[in-house]
Amino acid sequence: MSETRENSVLIVDDEKSNLMTLTHILNPDYTIYTAKNGADAVAKAKEYLPDLVLLDIIMPEMDGYEVLAALKGMSDTRDIPVIFITGLSSPEDEEKGLSSHAADYISKPFSAAIVKLRVRNQVQIVNQIRTIARMSMTDQLTGVSNRRGLDGRLDMEWARSVRDKTPLSILMLDVDKFKVYNDTYGHQQGDVALKTAAKIFTQSLKRKTDFVARWGGEEFAVLLPTTTLEGALDVAENIRSSIERTVIPCFDGSITKVTISIGVNTQIPEHDSSLEFFIAGADEALYTAKNTGRNRVVHASETEDTESLEAV
């Protein structure tokens, strides 16, 4: 396997010489994984989630068609494009491969130029789809994830926490009196405040698994996998104090400041737990934080004695 590069390719062939040849051709440009049989190919595809699979058709025990069917049958791997590599060259063989949802064909013996071009074409398509997907899940003003991106991440981390029995924490964050800020300084300055807040939220997260998103308007969410309530409160207080200290410049040369309120909820979910109830707990804690003075952090268990309070 080569050093890590932007895109990866899994090469599957029971002939060692073919693995070596294709690795030599592609190694300068891609991270390469190899498998010598069908079962190993399915396992490695699921483990590494390569951007592309080069798959030999004729293999013992589990042939390429069976491997392709297995990959298309799993949610994690069904969208990975597969190029068949084979000595079969009749129109009937090619038709069978393409009707099995193979993306392309590479014939043996290998032409290095053809291999590079066909692989490059598929990888470019993968990268374009990925870019479009990323843009569709990004908030254009702040550059953090949008609600759609958060929903997908929530589902994934919730399922992981159920499986691994680990705590999951969520912070709901809201810029205090943002309508007043907008009315006072204008919507353009309000956009500056939101972008500044989003930048601080992102900078306050220390792990790659932590996730920030714009929930809507002036409200944001931070997802903290494998994080206890104590850890989540530490992160929330760090964010709150950082926002409080931050000076936001105005277009006329003056300066402004904002504060935020944060609601926190932590849970070790079980199979019958409700994700909606989990989010609602953080949202209720945020509501309590705003109703009890703003610029503060409240966790879900603190809301029980404050439900009757009216908005400040």
Largest sheet: 5 strands, parallel
Strand content: 15-25%
Mean pLDDT value: 90
Unreliable stretches (pLDDT < 50, length at least 5) are 305-312
Q: Number of helical segments? A: 10
Helix content estimate: 40-55%
Shape: elongated
* Strand arrangement in the largest pleated sheet: 2-1-3-4-5
Number of distinct beta strands: 12
The topology string of helices and strands comes to EHEHEHEHEHHEHHEEHEEEHE
Cα radius of gyration in angstroms: 26 Å
What is the first-to-last residue Cα distance? 60 Å
Structural class by helix and strand composition = alpha/beta
Task: Provide a compact summary of the structure.
By secondary structure, the chain is an alpha/beta fold. It has helices at residues 16-26, 38-48, 64-72, 91-99, 112-136, 147-164, 178-185, 187-203, 229-245, 275-291; strands at residues 8-12, 31-35, 52-56, 82-86, 104-107, 168-175, 211-216, 219-225, 248-249, 255-256, 260-267, 297-299. The protein has 10 helices and 12 strands.
Keywords:
312 residues; alpha/beta; 5-stranded parallel beta sheet; 10 helices; 12 strands; disordered C terminus
Provide a descriptive summary of the structure in words:
The protein is of the alpha/beta class. 46% of the residues lie in helices and 19% in strands. It has ten helices and twelve strands. The protein has helices at 16-26, 38-48, 64-72, 91-99, 112-136, 147-164, 178-185, 187-203, 229-245, 275-291; strands at 8-12, 31-35, 52-56, 82-86, 104-107, 168-175, 211-216, 219-225, 248-249, 255-256, 260-267, 297-299. The longest helix is centred in the middle third of the chain and has 25 residues, at 112-136. The relative contact order is 0.09. The model is unreliable at 305-312 (pLDDT under 50).
